[in-house]
Amino acid sequence: MADAPQQAVEPRRNAFTRFLDGVEWLGNLLPHPVTLFALLAVGIVLLSGLFGWMGVAVVDPRPADAPGVAEDGMIRAVSLLDGDGVRRIFTNLVGNFTSFAPLGVVLVAMIGVGVAEKSGLLSAAVRGMVLSAPPKLVTIAIVFAGIVSNTASEVGYVVLIPLAAAIYYALGRHPLAGMAAAFAGVSGGYSANLLIGTIDPLLAGITQEAARLIDPDYIVLATANWYFMVASTFLITAIGSWVSIAIVEPKLGKYDPTHADKTILDDHMMEPLEPVEKKGLRWAGIALLGVLGLMALTLVPDWGVLRNPETGDRINSPFFQGFVVWILIFFIAIGYAYGRAAGTMKTDRDIIDAMAAALSSLGLYIVLVFFAAQFVAFFGWTNLGAITAVTGAQFLQESGLTGPALFFFFILICAVINLSLGSASAQWAVTAPIFVPMLMLIGYSPEAIQAAYRIGDSTTNIITPMMSYFGLILAWATRYERNLGVGTLIAMMLPYTIFFIIAWSTFFFVWTFVLGLPVGPGSPTYYTP
């Protein structure tokens, strides 16, 4: 008698995977992301009316002469249901959309990326990297590249994250796993880096002003956290790579290409490079050197036109503030050089068609941004984010903790606040005048306090829709999974948040209080009032 056919047995799912399944299921009960942001915008308007009627307010921790501080020194919930609120909504609806910071960055960058994509450069470059690189190192390289890209963060969001998905697809792996690894590096590891970025002098300035409430002569340098940032780069690379390989990719399973937008799948992704493609890559390399030389001329010499005209600074300068322009120039130059050499681009019409095709693929993202921009603007107008931040800070102040262990609670509170107040500088501008003086008075330096804050601020970026680029990542993901919902994206990124905040907080505690290492050059750990 023949044996009965055995049914395939699915591997057992552990408790953590089942938890993520639950998060995904709950999240996907939510409506389409566009509808969700529209409902959230309406909900904020209604909630502001209730809180405004109740007179919800907290004491503003900022100095009385700081910009935006009310005469009575209070932060009050602002109603958008009264006459002034309704008029503000109607007169700013279009402005909210057009001034939404990521929108312009994405559109400008995609004009350049479209040229590189249409010419065939991106496909050839990805195939060249994939076919020559050890597959086991791909995930590590992607997470590390995401962290380093934070020096000019737009590069990571608009270039590296979709490129990582294409690399994984070329390797026969789930493209969302590649996207998750890149997103974790770019956004979850936002405060780890080998270099000083544009956010460093901004946060240092806010910290310095808060510290001077206690010590009027205190100075906080832009390099205040550099040592700890460099060390954290390797920690986040290791943790992010492990989570990607051990948790996220197995949970996603085998990829089904029928779920994707057919226009983004390239059936030739694993074919060897043709001689004409190699020629195109050589010319693209020459164009790359030309662009890098031009960038150096505008930044390195003392007369560099894109250095800070007042201070001569290279970091806090027009070069980095307008870095999206370099993205545009970079991709147009190397894309056209490749296209001319490979024969895929012959006239200006080919370049224009490529630009138009790139923008036409962003229809869903533009619709999503319209409603997301309204939600973010309404939330800011109501002061609910600032009230949440001050309330969380007061909770920590009242906890009575004074030992180094209080930094675990501090980091956790900052992470929770970040869910509703996504901008690193905006959140720190409100909370630093509370946290910095409070922790200085019990003996901790502003530099160490800022380093701890940056951990909390970074680790929840990847799971909050309040993060400016969350909508863009969602739009990229739906190109590979048409029916993907917010819950799937949050559940995919949640393991990174959990392991990042545990490992990074512990690493900060060991680095600072066990080993006694400084978080940056000239940065003390303790402060004597």
Notes on the structure:
Helix content is 65%, strand content 1%. Mean pLDDT is 84; it is low at 1-11. It is mainly α and 529 residues long. Strands 1-2 form a two-stranded antiparallel ribbon. Helix 6 (138-148) crosses helix 10 (226-252), helix 7 (153-170) runs parallel beside helix 20 and helix 19 (446-459) packs antiparallel against helix 21 (486-514). The radius of gyration is 24 Å and the shape is globular.
Placed side by side, the strands forming the largest sheet appear as 1-2
Q: Determine the structural class based on helices, strands and strand pairing.
A: mainly alpha
Portion in helices = 55-70%
Runs in which pLDDT lies below 50 for 5 or more consecutive residues are 1-11
C-alpha-based Rg, rounded:
24 Å
- Looking at the structure, what is the overall shape? globular
Order of helices and strands: HHEEHHHHHHHHHHHHHHHHHHH
Distance between the termini: 87 Å
What is the number of helices?
A: 21
